[in-house]
Specification:
Blueprint (H helix, E strand, L loop, with lengths): L8 E4 L2 H22 L4 E2 L1 H9 L11 E5 H10 L9 E4 L11 E5 L2 E4 L13 E10 L3 H21 L3 H14 L12 H12 L9 E5 L4 E5 L6 E6 L2 E6 L2 H9 L18 E5 L1
Parallel strand pairs: 3-7
Antiparallel strand pairs: 1-12, 2-3, 4-5, 5-7, 6-12, 7-8, 8-9, 10-11
Helix pairs in contact: 4-6
GO biological process, one term: glycoprotein metabolic process
Pfam families: LicD
Protein name: LicD family protein
């Protein structure tokens, strides 16, 4: 661990404590959204956990939500200034301390260190992930081009946030594999990349689009907007949260037969991090 971290790091937070802290963030965010008329939905492994386990997937270790683009951007405007005592803080991709191309909401009392990321502009804490749901082109060929472009920029963003030697290795691998070649932008700043993704993502009005999409680095899913036209409440641990009315279609696209458990060898966590209380 680098020397400068030691000035801020206190007691280690174990994995079970991390799960509880994340759940507390989710409860706060859900309450914030309800009070401010913002739409949110449990997403990805958190959605699957709610439907199949009524809580965390036993080997999962994070929480994801999705918000329609208009609500996502409104959240970014309001969260850090409205009725917020500072315990929780929203980090946008354009913020200096950001490490990801999507929004993180962190517990400011904590510090989380993930391998290979560059924390020279500030440490972040235990968090939940907030992803946008964007309008999408109706034409399949147009959508294929669109999602490849967004994914290429997101890949560029993440490469820029990795420590130097890891970044060089990853860039080399990408050139060798010829992946994301058309939209790999090594000379853009991460802020410029974030602005470009936001600009591209607002091309298609969520409220008027026939289809909406989830685009990350690996994700490229598109659904009829009707899948997010309403919600139902579903138990996740000790609280009920919103899930999209089209959850079956969404989970099937992501996981196939999602009620069937994967083989034991695939029941593993995909994140590696260390978490601490701040001194």
């Amino acid at each position: 661990m680098k020397q400068f971290y030691k000035d801020f790091i206190g007691k280690t937070i174990n994995s079970q404590e991390q799960l509880k802290i994340q759940l507390d963030i989710l409860k706060y965010v859900a309450s914030f959204c309800e009070k401010n008329g913002l739409r949110y939905f449990l997403a990805d492994g958190t959605l699957l956990g709610a439907v199949r386990h009524h809580g965390y997937i036993p080997w999962d270790d994070d929480i994801d939500i999705r918000m329609p683009r208009p609500d996502y951007e409104k959240m970014c405007e309001l969260f850090n200034s409205k009725d917020n005592d500072g315990t929780y803080h929203l980090i946008q991709p354009s913020d200096d301390e950001a490490q990801h191309y999507f929004v993180k909401i962190i517990d400011t009392r904590t510090i989380k260190i993930e391998p290979y990321l560059n924390y020279k502009f500030g440490l972040i804490g235990i968090d939940i992930d907030v992803f946008p749901i964007d309008g999408a082109p109706s034409n399949p060929n147009e959508y294929d081009k669109y999602q490849k472009t967004i994914r290429g920029y997101n890949k560029t963003y993440m490469l820029k946030k990795k420590i130097f030697f890891r970044r060089m290795l990853t860039i080399g691998k990408d050139f060798v594999k010829n992946r994301f070649k058309a939209h790999f932008c090594p000379f853009m700043s991460f802020k410029a990349v974030a602005r470009k993704v936001k600009q591209l993502s607002n091309q298609y009005d969520f409220e008027k689009s026939e289809y909406v999409c989830h685009i990350g680095i690996g994700d490229r899913y598109r659904f009829p907007r009707s899948a997010y036209s309403d919600y139902k409440m579903m138990q996740f641990e000790d609280t009920q949260f919103r899930i999209p009315c089209g959850y079956d279609e969404i989970l099937t696209a992501h996981y196939g037969d999602y009620m069937k458990l994967p083989p034991v060898e695939k029941q593993i966590t995909h994140h590696v991090n260390n978490a601490y209380w701040k001194k």
